[in-house]
Specification:
Blueprint (H helix, E strand, L loop, with lengths): L4 H11 L3 E5 L4 E5 L6 E4 L2 E4 L2 E5 L4 H14 L8
Antiparallel strand pairs: 1-2, 1-5, 3-4
Length: 81
């Protein structure tokens, strides 16, 4: 797991993944493929995490700005369950 968009981009390049994500429920970043969902199992049920996923080809600055814009435009997103 990565601790920043920069580290997530590095992971994506190494793993040849097309997307990077910021998992708000785990407080981590990472690389993934479009069909992968981030989450965990609880009592035999998959619980999807609140993540922002974006194309790995975006620059670190673009990822930061797009995330900031999304959170500003969706102020209740982090509180929703």
């Amino acid at each position: 797991m990565a601790q920043s968009w920069k580290e997530a981009k590095s992971e994506a390049e190494k793993a040849q993944c097309k997307q990077v994500y910021h998992d708000f429920d785990r407080g981590s970043y990472g690389a993934c493929r479009p069909e992968q969902r981030q989450g965990h199992f609880a009592r035999g049920r998959f619980v999807e995490h609140r993540c922002i996923c974006m194309p790995a080809h975006f620059s670190e600055e673009e990822l930061i700005e797009k995330e900031k814009t999304f959170l500003e435009e969706n102020p209740g997103w982090l509180e929703e369950e």
